[in-house]
Amino acid sequence: MSVITVFNGLFCEAGVVVKRVVDATGCRLVTDQDIVADAASLSGMAEDRIARAFQAKTSVFNTFSHEKEQAIAWMRLALAKRLVEGDDLVIPGFVSQLPSRSIGHILNVCLISEMKSRLAVADREEGFAEKHAMKLIRKDDEDRAAWVKAVRDADDPWAGSLYDLVVPVGTTGVERSADLIVEQFSNAAVKVTEGSKASCEDFLLAARVETVLAKEGHNVQVSAKKGTVTLTINKHVLLLEKLERELKSIVSDVEGVKTVEAGVGKGFHQTDIYRKMDFEVPSKVLLVDDEREFVQTLSERLMMRDMGSAVVYDGESALNLVRDDEPEVMILDLKMPGIDGIEVLRRVKGEHPDIEVIILTGHGSEADRKVCMDLGAFAYLHKPVDIDVLSETLKAANEKIRAGK
User: Fold this and answer.
1) Would the N or C end of the chain have less CB density within 10 A of its end CB?
2) What pLDDT score does 270 carry?
3) What GO molecular function annotations does the UniProt record carry, in alphabetical order (predicted)?
4) CA distance 108 to 116
5) How high is the pLDDT of residue 228?
6) Same CATH fold, 285-404 and 216-277?
7) Residue 268's pLDDT is what?
């Protein structure tokens, strides 16, 4: 069950190197796509939602939805299950950063090349012009840097301290790069021991605890050793002792947990506030209204009720955000410059029928109400709206969404 993990830059010929390593070692290949699929099966989250965690761009709703953190937690569990199965594995890609560095039988490899070499590979293999290739490389490097920061808290994704072996493929060559990895894989230092197997079990337990907490709406750092689970809170919380008691109560019931310790980490004293996800209210609400002061105030009032919200001021911006970062609920005005609310509703329900749309207008008629409801609006409300009425409507929309899932 020895393992090779391979993290790489774009256009560094990693695919060819990895294939040579797999062929030479007989290890089983486990890709990012494999782990995403496993995580989706375990969690019930859609695969595309999980895969978004690899992107540097974070959802505008993530402070409340914790979607990226949940995706990472479920991928850790999926990978941990693979690691304890006992097969020799080669794990390339983003998920190569997820295993605990305390597992001694994992050889951590980084494949990277200087920019000139990467541009030459892009030209030779894909026919990409230098300008286009440079754009792709920078975007991929940005994604990888954000990923390593999220899962390893490291600023440089190519830092030698993160790996057992860093191979400059451009100068070393594909064949020799693969040979170096195979040679190091035969080193006694990465052979399976009782201690390294125990570290695998610790990693699995920590991953299981992390997903159990995620199901309850919590996001904390988790580690485990011989049944002792340590929870680290890295965001500021006012009622720290209450939160620690709640976390310990949840984790104590997880099979394999003997004792639970909780404390604060280095991020606790920063300004970022710890937010538990509230499953009774939607965490991804998009407000669409050209009355800027009104909609900003409404957004703030919803956030005070633990509902994550984003604001746009016209129909075109709403459709763009829906395409890039699908909300759960949309609160939509009818009368706006450009694309009006009825057209936005028609397109959203046509392309994203699972999004619940609440019409909130000060200018609508009975005829408008009928059109909106026929198009699939969840509710039709008038301005000014009582915040409690709107909150109850949002909760009802959320119940429908959860029931559908």
Assistant:
1) C
2) 62
3) kinase activity
4) 25
5) 97
6) no
7) 66
Structural domain spans, the chain? 3-190, 216-277, 285-404
Torsion of CA 294, 296, 298, 304, to 10 degrees: -150
Using N-to-C axis directions, what is the helix angle for 32-43 and 67-84, rounded to 10°? 110
Both tokens assigned to 51: 């895969």
As given in the structure block, the two tokens for residue 212 are: 């159990």
User: CA nearest 204: which of 29, 47, 109, 86?
Assistant: 86
Mark 190-224 as b/e (b = at least 16 C-beta within 10 Å): bebeeebbebbbbbbbbbbbbbbbbeebbbbebbb
Residue partners of 296: CB distance under 8 A and separation at least 6: 311
DSSP annotation of 384: S
Fold (topology level) of 3-190: Rossmann fold (3.40.50)
Any residues with CB less than 8 A from the CB of 323 and at least 6 apart, and which?
A: none
Paired residues of 50 in beta bridges: none
Query: Are residues 288 and 294 in contact, defined by beta-carbon separation less than 8 angstroms?
Result: no
Coil/strand/helix, residue 231: strand
pLDDT along the chain (405 residues), means of 10: 95 98 97 98 94 93 90 98 92 97 96 97 96 97 97 95 97 98 94 95 98 92 96 84 93 96 77 72 94 94 90 95 92 94 96 96 91 97 94 95 84
Q: What integer pLDDT is reported at residue 375 of this predicted model?
A: 97
For the chain, the residue count is 405
For 216-277, CATH number out of 3.90.1200, 3.30.300, 3.40.1130, 3.40.50 equals 3.30.300
Q: Are 154 and 162 in contact (CB under 8 A)?
A: yes
Under 8 Å between Cβ of 118 and 9: yes
* pTM for the whole structure: 0.87
- DSSP-H helix ranges across 216-340: 240-252, 292-303, 315-324
Residue with tokens 């890709």: 31
Architecture of 285-404 per CATH?
Answer: 3-Layer(aba) Sandwich (3.40)
Based on its alpha-carbon atoms, the radius of gyration of the chain, rounded to whole angstroms, reads 24
Closest CA to 213 of 274, 267, 281: 274
